[in-house]
Fold these 4 entries.
Entry 1:
Amino acid sequence: MTDLSYKRYSFTTGFSPLKIITDKFNFPQDSQDNFIIPASDILVKIHYASLNPVDSKLHHTSFFQPFSNHGMGKDFSGEVIAVGGNITKFKIGDLVQGFHPGVLTNDGTFSEYLLVKTNMWFLNTEITKIPSNITLKEAAAWPLVLGTAMLMIDGLSIKDKKVLLLGGATSVGRYVTQLLRIEGAEEIVVSCSPRSQELVSELGATRIINYRENVLNQVLDNVRDKPFDYIFDCWGGTELFSNLDTILAKKGTYHTIVGDIPGSDFGSFVSIVQVGLIGLKSTLLMDK
Ligand SMILES: NC(=O)c1ccc[n+]([C@@H]2O[C@H](COP(=O)([O-])OP(=O)(O)OC[C@H]3O[C@@H](n4cnc5c(N)ncnc54)[C@H](OP(=O)(O)O)[C@@H]3O)[C@@H](O)[C@H]2O)c1
């Protein structure tokens, strides 16, 4: 057996600071010095990891048991350095990227190495090879954010639909806007502040609502001719709820990744947990 010592960021409770700790894996090696790891696992040497609001929010919950070294970080890119016997899609040397939930495994991607378990019963790590036209740095930047955006519209027929997107300049909203344009939405009405109007329009918004002014009035102005088929909410809140009969078409749906408490701070995270919407498929759907 050989020890593989590595450093990683960790915390023990919602109130303790982040610190760098040294951990180790202990695996036998084959005749070519490759690690022999469990059959369904993939050992990745992390090159890049990116920071998401959820990393900080999870750190500051008391949801985690104390006395364990919990991990930080979900997005990653890196190089495969060992594969288990059941792994057929990856080999040593592959450059990979992914999203690692890490909630049940006490580890994270702010680490020199990550042992990806592909046979978890819940919250599996998403891992895929990096396309040849992006760098390792770029590859770590978007799995959770783009993945959330993709799941928001997953299974919905977008072509020729009229769509309202609340929070178009949030990190998820920027991807949702582009996906809506690619999927052929007829109208993409997006809320953002004046500083992001130009960017959001370049990404695909056909009309802008300034959230610094009365949002409900502007939304109502936008449904004089036709109601929205979908509302995608990347910012949260309940401001439109009492007028949904007017704002949404019959059979129209409202999808939120935030919940009742708006924002990307800790309160909005509690709001997500309160409505039981945790995890990548956290879309609340209100069918009118
Ligand atoms: N990041 C993820 O992968 C992810 C995944 C799942 C869920 N979420 C949840 O989604 C929410 C947004 O997170 P995020 O990381 O995408 O956001 P973010 O990037 O932190 O959003 C910040 C942006 O929100 C915009 N904003 C501020 N007030 C607003 C308002 N009243 N209405 C609309 N937009 C407003 C501002 O844009 P402008 O002023 O420039 O317009 C600001 O730049 C959070 O609650 C988060 O927990 C995020």
Entry 2:
Amino acid sequence: MTNSWQEATVVSVNDQTPDFRSIILKPKKFYDFKSGNFVELALRPAQGKLPRTYKCYSVVSTPQEIGGIEVGVKLYKDGALSPKLFKFKKNNKLLMRGPLGAYFVWELSKRDTVLIAGGSGICPMISILRQYNPGLAKMYLLFSTKQGSVYYEDELNRLCSEKNINYVLIQTGKNGRVNKKIIHGRFGNLIGTDTDFFVAGPTGFVQDVSLWLRELGVEEGSLKTDDFET
Ligand SMILES: Cc1cc2nc3c(=O)[nH]c(=O)nc-3n(C[C@H](O)[C@H](O)[C@H](O)COP(=O)(O)OP(=O)(O)OC[C@H]3O[C@@H](n4cnc5c(N)ncnc54)[C@H](O)[C@@H]3O)c2cc1C
């Protein structure tokens, strides 16, 4: 891992929905990382200056994907950085730092895993699902997102079917919001077993879900949260 800024080139962009695109970036130097890590991205500042605005983006790709570092970006039309990232094209350059992050990290193991993602919180989960080996342990995914904003929809359906992942999609506007009863109903029987819980997404979502999990008896050591601060 590194804390220094380096130049990265856009290899490709893929507009998945009107408010979400994935971007593959090729940094000058690749560093080791784990699923759950994030990179910081910034526009290139004037020569000799440090970037003023930079934001974190979870790595979607896996360490085995050597063609580039993939990130997924949700568009905030009035945001400082994401609208600019939506203008990027192949071969454009920006600055990247990382991968970073030591806490929200998933590694192959024999422990079962529950992933609970809100909106763009699906990004680090895709990296985990790509790496997951169904021969080792069980995997559960709950993805809550707005109707029409099912990011990585085709890949999710394919991975969950191929790897026998227990997947539920909750689209607010169609199925309502996630609540404690839903979390208890789907995962209550896993609490107290060898299961790790990963929660990622906007602040309110992460706060609510992690509070419910703690109230239901999930121990601190089994709960990892990634608060996107949005
Ligand atoms: C560890 C981590 C991982 C992350 N991973 C991802 C990821 O994989 N994908 C992803 O899309 N995002 C991710 N994020 C979020 C990302 O870093 C940015 O916060 C997000 O892209 C918004 O940045 P922005 O500059 O476009 O918008 P911002 O300028 O941050 O604005 C976001 C929203 O807040 C509002 N806002 C900002 N400032 C104010 C203010 N002063 N008063 C009122 N409203 C305000 C804006 O109007 C806008 O609606 C992650 C964040 C963290 C911390």
Entry 3:
Amino acid sequence: MKMGIKDIIVWRIIPGLAVAIAAAAGFFLSHEFPFAFIFATVVPLSNGVLPPSVVGHGKMRGTPEVPSDLMPLPRPKDELFLDLPGGGKLPQQGIGMCCRATATDDVLVYRTVLWYLLLGGRHIDGAHVYWNHAAIGRGISEAIRRGVPREEIFVTTKIFPTHFGFESTKENVQNYLRELGLGYIDMVLLHWPQNFPLLSSPCQKEGKSRSECRRETWRALSNLREEGLIKNAGVSNFSLKHIKELEGFGAPIANNQISFHPFEPDHVMETVKYCQSNGITVTAYSPLGLTSITICSGMRDKDRAHANNLLRELSSKYGKNVSQIMLRWAVQTGCAVIPGTGNPDHMKENLSVYEFYLRDEDMDAINQLKHVAEGFTHVDVRQLE
Ligand SMILES: NC(=O)c1ccc[n+]([C@@H]2O[C@H](COP(=O)([O-])OP(=O)(O)OC[C@H]3O[C@@H](n4cnc5c(N)ncnc54)[C@H](OP(=O)(O)O)[C@@H]3O)[C@@H](O)[C@H]2O)c1
């Protein structure tokens, strides 16, 4: 008997969809942190690569193996640091462990961290949501075995708003310590001021407001700092409004990690200036422009920046590439930079940001570029509640 269109919808499509939705829901609910799974799947897919979260780790190409006889090279000459409240120092050049395909494959993450530390880098930026703590930890452990002192390494991680809350933060940081294989974490940040739609945190489930949840999380980080399990507490993607809410409450705010490159709108520079004049260090993420999400934006910000005439002129003038000019500009603006890369040659280029100095007139010229920000990705965190 031939089926009509109505029968196909009722007996085939609807049951098929129901099974697919039930399978997806079962799968996501069985994962401790489904959002991280989705993130680690979407990033490689948006870069045209099969995700290790689905096909398994160790299959992706990218970061070469680290030679077994490679020993730690000297730290960069003229390395620069930012002073943290309480006396610590944040190396201004770091490496980001998110958002590119190679940061989603545990084997490549291990190699990346090991390469970077052996090449003389010391600042690693991670987050719970990047889903690669354990591989980062293995890279650190191998670098320590080869002679890099633990106390020289600065490890940052972040707690995602789905885990905000006092008890939840304390529990999660204990998990991060275990996953990373460390006795203490150098800095833990609140990753984003508020939860994304449809997501909730233990704190929200208790009926607390977003602002109360941030403060509960901060209280837990302040306790962990007193216990010595974390050395510094900070925030990320916080606008001035969010920062002021935590000031004078518990631990000093050590850092605000924000998107920062020469094409940001003016209010971002205001946030940087406020932080710097109030003892809060600033870390620039996406210092080369947003590079990760290609599905929505088409042309990547990094390519837009590389096409900019002024940056190209300065690149010829200083004999450095556009990425190095952009990183140096952020470093001279007083920020730490954390470009992510799985490529050891790019790591060397990024570490050589300490080797040259942009003249004042060139810094001024780059500062004017903020006025041509159109077309660059920008999320205005001032809108977040
Ligand atoms: N707090 C937050 O909300 C937040 C948000 C986004 C990012 N972050 C952090 O900031 C880090 C940096 O973010 P991102 O947006 O820049 O993304 P990213 O995913 O780290 O991307 C950096 C990109 O630039 C390329 N690259 C790096 N150095 C280069 C060089 N010298 N020359 C040419 N290409 C180079 C890398 O490619 P190769 O691998 O080929 O070198 C990579 O594709 C992240 O890894 C993460 O740790 C934080």
Entry 4:
Amino acid sequence: CRFRAPANGRYKPTCYEHAANCYTHAFLIVPAIVGSALLHRLSDDCWEKITAWIYGMGLCALFIVSTVFHIVSWKKSHLRTVEHCFHMCDRMVIYFFIAASYAPWLNLRELGPLASHMRWFIWLMAAGGTIYVFLYHEKYKVVELFFYLTMGFSPALVVTSMNNTDGLQELAYGGLIYCLGVVFFKSDGIIPFAHAIWHLFVATAAAVHYYAIWKYLYRSPTDFIRHL
Ligand SMILES: [Zn+2]
């Protein structure tokens, strides 16, 4: 039995879909923690260490908050406000996740004088998105999607102006995977397991981005030369 989402409400997943929504992100919590710790270990200086922390926290927070939200929304029934709160957190963490995903590229690469402002501006956008969720959560879904895409694309303009373009191809591939995933994000109740499929796109894109960050921004210089 499946229910169409009311025009102003949320789609109610079947229990199989609920389970899939939980597991598709729960399985990534441990890899996210291990991956973050690895980047921290590979850091050569303080700035790389801080960036590994920021990126790692964004990565872990995304999968943890998402898993908790989906568990709460699955097991809820009497805890409406708790579910609502976690749904807001689930949406807010996406803004910080986008900022955290760009942070290694913005922090660890040489940027022009104007472009370097994106290092803090992206966090301002994340804060703006969070305030928006507080005020208008679920009211204007198109605006919300527009914010996500703006935040996802505007730092790309800065990043592509860098002198060192190593890894930008992978960065773009990851971005493309997120964009393809949005089709499923918007297909709740139309395509079965649409939200879990969206989760898999997020997981794949995050893995591609992690790989690029690990390979191009964190692998030690001597190791890199050996592979040339
Ligand atoms: Zn989700």
